[in-house]
Automatic annotation (TrEMBL):
The chain crosses the membrane at residues 33-55, 83-102, 114-131. Residues 137-175 form a coiled coil. Gene3D superfamilies: 3.30.450.40. This is GAF domain-containing protein. SUPFAM superfamilies: GAF domain-like (SSF55781). InterPro entries: GAF-like_dom_sf. It comes from the Bacteria. Keywords: Coiled coil, Membrane, Transmembrane, Transmembrane helix. The keyword Acyltransferase does not apply.
């Protein structure tokens, strides 16, 4: 028994700071060491005062069978654990030795007679047994706590996995539904695009398709005119301007798309001042317009939508390629040679589409026209328009028909229309402005 106690005593280490090893049985802190030591000293002094200092208990104090110091060691061991119990056992032994010495006994007899030194062994035995019991209880409690934390963590992970599986399940169901309908829809898109015969019809249809399939909040089409982009169709309330200068910072994503000649994806602009998707619209090998999406619905995935956007734009450009080939055969052109003056036929095609665009996009269209008083040719008119654009002219389409010049203004307000009227007075005679 003595050897077992000695071995257990040798295992005692200094636990000044909280033990951070989760597998250690005993966890003790500086605070617990101080508290257990103070309590042991306090109880020992109190026991000596009550049980030894009083004359009627002094004679029996050293030979008590249920010794109060042993009770004190038991209490400390159960409260703080095995190491605090050993500390309390040594303090109790010191208290017992104090009473032994003050009783006038010889120290040699203390070590020779079992009836005296048995208390030291008893204190250590109580500290070891009850301290071990407390340590086991704490260990089991800690293990149970860790298991509960693991189970809680596993439960949270399972809940998260369940939510992810439910989301995947919903997405798969939606994909199955949309793919079944999507194949039919894409076939219808291709079929409808193949029925179109003019560029403007395709532009009108393209924004319709984007609005239907992309679930976007803001989108628009800009036609390319020199170093400017003119917005001709839009949905939503985009912060992008009606006319963009390609040299300005707001148009940098459009310029990048023009340079690369391919559909591009950009980072989300929280202010909504720059597009997230931009695609070139080709007529032959030339980019005549750009289709952009500024804001997607929060319910949609940006990556999936971009792939869908590219597919749709490919179909749109395929349709325009077909129309270009047919127009080349029939000598039908968008612009007069080396200018941005639209041909009479193309201008009529634009006007034909205005009615549908008014119905779908709630846009306002004005015609500003007058006699060509200076008898400008298309080349001469283009040079004059280049000069007038510096003064604020922002007509979207211009054409020469017989002896007249016509300007198409999209979404112009009264103030802007009056300014446009003043600007073109030098090249028109008997000019009039009216809404289509």
């Amino acid at each position: 028994m003595t050897n077992k106690i000695f071995k257990e005593t040798l295992k005692i280490k200094r636990y000044i700071f909280l033990d951070k090893n989760p597998d250690r049985i005993e966890v003790i802190s500086r605070k617990n060491i101080i508290l257990s030591t103070i309590e042991s000293l306090s109880y020992t002094i109190l026991i000596l005062l009550v049980c030894y200092a009083l004359p009627f208990t002094r004679n029996n104090f050293l030979a008590l069978n249920i010794h109060p110091l042993a009770v004190m060691v038991a209490i400390i061991s159960l409260r703080y654990g095995i190491y605090a119990g050993f500390s309390s056992a040594f303090i109790a032994t010191l208290g017992y030795l104090t009473a032994y010495i003050f009783s006038g006994n010889d120290m040699v007899l203390f070590f020779l007679k079992f009836q005296y030194h048995k208390f030291f062994i008893m204190f250590l035995f109580i500290a070891m047994i009850l301290g071990k019991f407390q340590a086991n209880r704490k260990e089991n409690e800690e293990i149970a706590k860790r298991e509960a934390e693991k189970l809680e963590k596993l439960l949270d992970e399972e809940k998260q996995k369940k939510e992810e599986l439910l989301k995947i399940n919903r997405d798969l169901k939606n994909q199955i539904i949309t793919s079944r309908g999507g194949v039919i829809s894409f076939q219808n898109i291709r079929k409808n695009l193949n029925l179109l015969t003019t560029v403007e019809q395709v532009l009108t249809k393209s924004i319709n398709i984007i609005n239907q399939f992309m679930n976007c909040e803001n989108a628009s089409i800009y036609i390319v005119k020199n170093q400017n982009l003119n917005q001709i169709i839009k949905i939503g309330n985009s912060s992008l301007g009606k006319i963009l200068d390609l040299n300005e910072a707001q148009a940098d994503r459009f310029l990048m798309t023009l340079d690369k000649g391919e559909t591009l994806e950009f980072s989300l602009d929280l202010k909504g001042e720059k597009p997230v998707f931009v695609a070139p619209i080709f007529y032959g090998e030339k980019i005549i317009a750009l289709l952009e999406i500024t804001r997607l619905s929060y319910e949609t995935s940006k990556n999936e939508n971009f792939e869908l956007f590219k597919i749709i734009m490919e179909e749109i450009n395929n349709s325009l390629s077909r129309i270009f080939s047919e127009n080349e055969k029939n000598n039908i052109y968008i612009f007069e040679k080396d200018t941005f003056i639209t041909t009479k036929k193309y201008f009529e095609q634009v006007l034909d589409e205005v009615k549908d665009r008014k119905k779908y996009y709630n846009q306002i269209y004005f015609i500003l026209e007058g006699n060509n008083k200076n008898k400008y040719s298309s080349e001469e008119l283009q040079k004059k328009l280049d000069e007038l654009e510096k003064n604020g002219l922002n007509a979207d389409y211009v054409t020469i028909t017989d002896d007249k010049i016509k300007f198409l203004l999209i979404n112009g307000d009264n103030g802007n229309n009056e300014r446009q009227l003043e600007i073109v007075k030098n090249i028109l005679k008997e000019e009039i402005l009216y809404e289509i």
